[in-house]
Amino acid sequence: MAESNTLILDKAGIRRALTRISHEILERNKGTTDLALVGIRTGGDFLARQLAAMIDRIEESQVPVGVIDITLYRDDLSHREVRPVEKTTLPFSLDDRQVVLVDDVLFTGRTIRAAMDALMDLGRPRNIQLAVLIDRGHRELPIRPDYIGRNVPTSKDEGIVVEFNEDNAPVSVLLKKN
Amino acid sequence: MAFSHKHILGTAQLSTDDISLILDTAESFKEINQRDIKKVPTLRGRTVINLFFEASTRTRVSFEIAEKRLSADSINISASTSSVVKGETLEDTARNLEAMRPDIIVIRHSASGAPHYLAERVNAAIVNAGDGAHEHPSQALLDLMTIREHKGSLKGLNVAIIGDITHSRVARSNILALKKMGASVRLLAPGTMMPPGIEKTGARVFTRMEDCLDGADVVMMLRIQLERQGNTLIPSVREYARFFGLNRSNLKCAKPDALVMHPGPINRGVEITSDVADGDQNVILEQVENGVAVRMALLYLISGESVSET
Predict the structure, then answer these.
(1) pTM of the model
(2) Per-residue pLDDT, B234
(3) Cα–Cα distance between B23 and B176 in angstroms, integer?
(4) Would you tell me the crossing angle of helices B169-180 and B137-151 to the nearest 10 degrees?
């Protein structure tokens, strides 16, 4: 069967969604005090940087951004080929921070479980919140996002692809049918 | 990029892509060793046996730390405290260990090929931590990692390896790995310690220290095994130190930013003088630090779903 793609969000749509999430993060945390954004490699990393830039524009306050690689915390090492491990970089202490985890697509929730374990090994945040650009459902763990760009009901054999340009800015979100 | 090896027996088996992947992975693991909580759950529930038939402090501790930081359960067996002293053969030892279902066996043995022998007979993945005068792959890889960190790339570098080339598994693993990564390798040793035919590896053989060091980017000194070869292959330790030892004055023949490396343990005043071993150009303790990261990378990479054998 031929592969078909449906455009879920274009560049402007993504920008609007991220702008709204930026405002929601600021509203919920009452500004940027003790706030930090942590992106999950690699899509979440790019989005966290976008969100930080938007928050800077709205509030004129710089929020620290970190990136974590959760490969070593995955629960499926014996089921698949090893993946390259990238660096985890948190240029700030997590202790007593309000941390917003950022990922591009929320699916089973296993990645978020791994990311939370990784954060706990690196410090003791005051709280952890979750921001995702797309929530596609099919959760296998009791995990719920705090900030959602767009809910996209999918079937399991569909895929969500977030495309980034060479400057690592998101340009489109596609629903792929196999 | 996939890593297709079940065992790590030597650098001979590794491609340039494999080596690059190992070094990249090790760089990521290095960050874990700088955290407050130096542990990730990756190898939770895996059992690793460190089977050391030869004395070792650095390598054994380095492997053990790497295993523990990946949350594997590790068990150390050294020949002096095992049934080997009661006359058990390597094969019987291996079979008995195998019955307890370890996932990985890290082995050091005085016989070349011992890890390969085990790899054919047990289901566990085998990591060679030094076999006779054959290979010591994790040492070569940590050397490459240290060089790459300082020089950016290995391609085109001049690396001088000086000492007992014949009996050095560190030298052999390094020559093979460095040549694969595009470095040129120069060797210097007393005639009795230079294996015939070593030129076939592509390394260049020198006879004078100053010529070998001329323009070198890296100077790798090897330990003279005083307990083994000290009395038969060289006339005297003093003569060896004079013609083949690294000191402040002959180091000037190398490039001014040349790295000074040594796999340890050092015989101070024999193959290297103390002021050079502790000098600005030495990266000896960085080699030790990188050793943990490289061994974590190796254990991690062989622990995924195996794609094919060896």
Answers:
(1) 0.89
(2) 86
(3) 16
(4) 50
Residue A4's closest CA among A159, A136, A152, A151? A159
Spatial distance between the Cα atoms of B297 and A85, rounded to a whole number of angstroms: 9
**H or E, element range at B179:** helix B169-180
- Closest-CA distance, A87 to chain B, in angstroms, reads 5
Catalytic residues of B: 58-59, 86, 108, 136
Strand B184-188 and strand B204-206: pairing?
A: parallel
Whether the CB-CB separation of A63 and A52 falls below 8 Å is answered with: yes
**Alpha carbon of A126: minimum distance to chain B alpha carbons (Å):** 18
Reported ipTM = 0.79
Q: Which residues of B touch A87 (CB under 8 A)?
A: 27-28, 31
pLDDT digits (tens, 9 = 90+) for A34-55: 999 999 988 899 999 999 999 9
Q: B219, B234, B225, B178: which is closest to B201 by C-alpha?
A: B178
Which residue is associated with the tokens 């390259």? A84
Q: Report the distance separating Cα B267 and Cα B248, nearest Å.
A: 16
Tokens describing residue A56: 């800077």
Mutating which of B31, B294, B306 best tests the A interface, going by the most A Cβ atoms within 10 A? B31
Among B254, B274, B54, B280, which residue's Cα sits nearest to residue B161? B254
CB contacts, 8 Å: B31 with chain A: 87-89
Which residues, in sequence order, are CB contacts of B213 under 8 Å at separation 6+?
B160, B219, B250, B251, B253, B254
Chain B residues closer than 8 Å to A91 by CB: none
Q: How far is A171 from chain B (nearest CA, A)?
A: 26
Would you call B300 and A84 a contact, using CB atoms and an 8 Å cutoff? no
To test the contact with chain A by mutation, choose from B20, B149, B305, B307 the residue with the greatest count of A C-beta atoms within 10 A, namely B305
Contact B128, B10 (CB under 8 A): yes
Q: What is the pLDDT of residues B225-277, one digit of tens each?
A: 877 655 688 888 899 999 999 999 999 999 999 999 999 999 999 999 999 99
Q: Which residues of B touch A89 (CB under 8 A)?
A: 31
The arithmetic mean of pLDDT across residues A130-134, rounded, is: 97
**Closest residue of chain A to B297, computed from CA coordinates:** A85
Dihedral sign for Cα A12, A18, A19, A20, please.
positive
Query: Could you give the domains of chain A?
Result: 4-70+87-177 (3.40.50.2020)
Interface of A with B in 9-68 (CB under 8 A): none
Structure tokens at A45: 């990393």
